[in-house]
Specification:
Layout lengths: L1 H9 L1 H15 L5 H23 L8 H19 L4 H22 L4 H45 L3 E4 L2 E7 L4 H18 L3 E8 L5 H16 L3 E5 L3 H9 L8 E3 L2 H12 L12
Parallel strand pairs: 2-3, 3-4, 4-5
Antiparallel strand pairs: 1-2
């Protein structure tokens, strides 16, 4: 496909300008700074695609097209981070088919059969790039969602030193297996870091406490006990208490109190102190 490569090489600036114009039409909310960066990335993609067609490697299996795929994936990931939608990203890539096709019709003097071959090779290459960009877009969005989820978990599972040798961990939201492991890990780390003797787990913000959640809490209590610390669970609602009784969950090893205030009073009792007692300057 030397002819197609030569045409793209001679009209690189026109192709790139037309491509950016399509992007402005399909993604009017894109920021100017993002467009400027995307212009450089699209220019690199046009160069790599031109080199691929100049090489005459039309089956898409050579290293030249591999380089094109990697650049397309880079562009797609950037679009995902910049907030473009999947439709806008797909339209951006597929619009190259129309832009380059119109260019072929204007610039080539080849016979109909040769023009058909070039259009077929162009369409096949761009269609394959569209699949690559879609996969890269989804992968990047999933990674962004995972990072946001981890950040939300960090905010929803804080370990707060509230008194000398006492830490508080208020739990909010659903507790699944993964989060239960994280709660145990962070609680044990906080107990060791703060040299705490008492940990208060407040589950007022947990919407559902079933046998699985109770099992996770029991394991956390046992793990803390191995460190020489005690865990007080507060905030179990009346409905949750009835559910746990019906499920015959053994909570005999767990210290429970109805409210956070009662849990804090129990913590002071276990330490043999009173909240008004003087404490050391370092918390």
């Amino acid at each position: 496909m030397h002819g197609l490569g030569q045409i793209l090489l001679q009209n690189r600036s026109g192709v790139l300008d037309a491509w950016l114009a399509r992007l402005r039409d399909t993604a009017p909310g894109a920021q100017p700074a993002s467009l400027q960066l995307l212009k450089l990335e699209l220019g690199t993609l046009v160069e790599k695609l031109t080199a691929y067609f100049l090489a005459g490697d039309g089956d898409g299996a050579g290293p030249a097209f591999k380089s094109v795929e990697e650049q397309a994936a880079t562009i797609s990931a950037a679009c995902a981070r910049d907030g473009l939608t999947p439709m806008e990203t797909a339209t951006l890539i597929l619009s190259l088919k129309t832009i380059a096709g119109e260019l072929l019709d204007r610039e080539t003097s080849a016979k109909a059969t040769e023009l058909y071959r070039m259009r077929t090779a162009l369409d096949a290459g761009v269609d394959r790039l569209a699949l690559i960009t879609f996969a890269a877009f989804v992968e990047t969005r999933e990674e962004i969602i995972k990072r946001q989820g981890r950040a939300l978990l960090d905010l929803a599972t804080p370990a707060l030193p509230i008194w000398r040798h006492i830490i508080l961990m208020p739990l909010v939201g659903v507790i699944d297996t993964q989060r239960a492991r994280q709660v145990m890990e962070w609680l044990l780390e906080a107990l060791a870091r703060e040299e705490a003797h008492i940990a208060i787990l407040d589950v007022t913000g947990v919407p559902l406490i079933d046998s699985r959640v109770a099992l996770h809490l029991t394991k956390t209590v046992e793990a803390a006990r191995l460190l020489g610390s005690r865990v007080i669970v507060t905030g179990i609602s009346p409905d949750a208490a009835q559910t746990l009784v019906k499920l015959d969950v053994d909570l005999s090893s767990m210290i429970t109190r109805g409210t956070l205030r009662a849990g804090l009073a129990e913590a002071f009792r276990l330490l043999g102190r009173h909240p008004k007692d003087p404490i050391e300057t370092s918390l």
